[in-house]
Amino acid sequence: MTKQFGKTGRTVTEIGMGTYYDKPWIRIAKHGISIGASRKIKSIRAGLDGGINLIDTAEAYYSEPFVAKAIRGRKRDELFIATKVWLTNLHHDDLIAALERSLRALQLSYVDLYQIHFPNASIPIKETMRAMEEMMDKGKIRAIGVSNFSVDQTIEANSVLARSEIAASQVNYSLVHRKVEKDIIPYCQQNGIAVLAYYPLGHGLLAKPDSRMEAVCRRNSKTPAQVALNWLVSKAGVFAIPRASRAQHVVEDLGGSGWRLSADDVAELEKEFPLENPPS
After folding, report:
1. Is 211 among the domain residues?
2. Which residues, in sequence order, are CB contacts of 23 under 8 Å at separation 6+?
3. Residue 190: other Cβ atoms inside 10 A
4. The CATH number of the domain where 165 resides is what?
5. How many domains does the chain divide into?
6. What is the spatial distance between Cα 108 and Cα 87, in angstroms, rounded to a whole number?
7. Residue 109 CB: number of other CB atoms within 10 A?
8. Over the range 116-153, which residues count as b (16 or more CB within 10 Å of their CB) and which as e?
9. Does 267 map to a domain?
10. Cα–Cα distance measured from residue 47 to residue 17, given in angstroms and rounded to the nearest whole number
11. SS3 helix, strand, coil % of the chain, rounded to 5?
């Protein structure tokens, strides 16, 4: 199932694929050692074969080369590729250099969404956004996004853009991490900003059998992961990006889309996983 990605005019699959493979893996990958590379590429391809067109990566993940291999031979205009610039590379020239590195790693001439991975109070956001818009003008970025930004930080970032708007906000969001519903989610929905939900399965917690989800899973003949993902993407403007690490998991994740939980199902889940539920 697809829906409009904020104000970009693009139609994107509501379930995408994330390519963050945990901190220990990244520490090794920094030295050019890619453990399980073929399995990860196969996983991304499984998602693409299943109809997913949204892939999220980042320079800090060291997974951009995997994405490049996975999408090779696919129609570029049918894909929505998002990547991120690390918080130490937010000065004007540093951002441009980081983008060029990411484009080389991805083997692309542009990315559909370029995101600031984390805010950095020591670098003026106006300088960062000036570089972003310059890259948009050159056709190397199609849309600008932020990640891990508060509402106030998002408003500030938007206010310094001269010719564009923030298109997306990436946040930690799932049934077990709902505190973003208090501020950033409603703000994005009110302002036409797409939400990319990372850790949509709560670090795998929501992919396991859970008595709190059992009845809903049974009524819908779905797995816990599929129910958790469907709950997320039923929200206006929200896209889930579960990690693509194993092909069988990606195929299962695909089953989280193409249908909708009933209002009673949603109410039951939100009672079992209340807004005040602490992060897991």
Report:
1. no
2. none
3. 10
4. 3.20.20.100
5. 1
6. 22
7. 9
8. bbbbbeebebebbbbbbbebbeeebbbbbbbbbbbbeb
9. no
10. 7
11. 45, 15, 40
Q: Tell me the backbone φ, ψ of residue 18, rounded to 5 degrees.
A: -100, 155
Residues written for the chain: 280
Catalytic residue (choose from 20, 61, 173, 199): 61
Asked if residue 221 is part of any domain, the answer here is: no
Task: Reduce the DSSP state of residue 144 to 3 states and report it.
Answer: strand
Is 199 one of the catalytic residues? no
Amino acid letter, residue 114 = Y
- Residue 12 forms beta bridges with which residues? 3
Nearest to 220 by CA among 178, 174, 269: 269
* Structural domain span for residue 8: 2-202+228-260
Distance CA 91, CA 141 (A): 17
Both tokens of 75, joined, read 């129609």
| Residue 97, amino acid | A
Look up residue 194 and give its two tokens.
């797409």
In order along its 280 residues, the chain shows pLDDT tens digits of 999 999 999 999 999 999 998 777 677 777 676 677 889 999 999 999 999 999 999 999 999 999 999 999 999 999 999 999 999 999 999 999 999 999 999 999 999 999 999 999 999 999 999 999 999 999 999 999 999 999 999 999 999 999 999 999 999 999 999 999 999 999 999 999 999 999 999 999 999 999 999 999 999 999 999 999 999 999 999 999 999 999 999 999 999 999 999 999 999 999 999 997 554 4
Whether 269 is covered by a domain: the verdict is no
- Both tokens of residue 44? 């991304």
